[in-house]
Design brief:
Helix content is 88%, strand content 0%. It is an all-alpha fold. The chain has one domain. The model has no long low-confidence stretch (mean pLDDT 79).
Length: 132
């Protein structure tokens, strides 16, 4: 806005609207950037889930080999060793899947910083117009 004391109410309103419009554009750009950032972290979470699937398949193979070895060898320690390794891989897969699933919750993808900025901007605009 200019400091022209002779400016009409329409001119002042036009200036105010152009400033609000610019502010809204900047907030939309900020929201877009924040969503992109959140989608990148969602990509990492999907990678963890895919990793968990690979590890779970490995665990299934090892557990199957352990069962076969245990049945075939009737209690020879090599079979039980394979069983222990399979259980460890299953625990790792579970931990990875849980972490990936938790990171994909919709609340972690929402543009929270932008929402906070928009609320603050709206409050500021309201205060400016309440003072007049």
């Amino acid at each position: 806005m200019t400091n022209d004391p002779n400016k009409t109410a329409g001119g002042l309103l036009g200036d105010a609207l152009s400033h609000v419009s610019a502010l809204v554009r900047k907030e939309v750009d900020l929201a877009r950037a924040e969503v992109n950032e959140n989608l990148k972290s969602a990509g990492v979470a999907v990678g963890l889930i895919i990793g968990a699937i690979v590890v779970a398949l490995t665990a299934l193979n090892v557990l199957t080999a352990a069962l076969v070895a245990a049945l075939t060898e009737a209690g020879i320690p090599a079979g039980w060793s394979a069983l222990i390794v399979g259980v460890v891989f299953a625990i790792i897969a579970y931990a990875m899947a849980t972490k990936g699933t938790n990171d994909l919750k919709l609340s972690s993808l929402a543009p929270t910083r932008t929402a906070k900025n928009v609320k603050r901007d709206a409050q500021t605009v309201k205060e400016v117009y309440d003072d007049k």
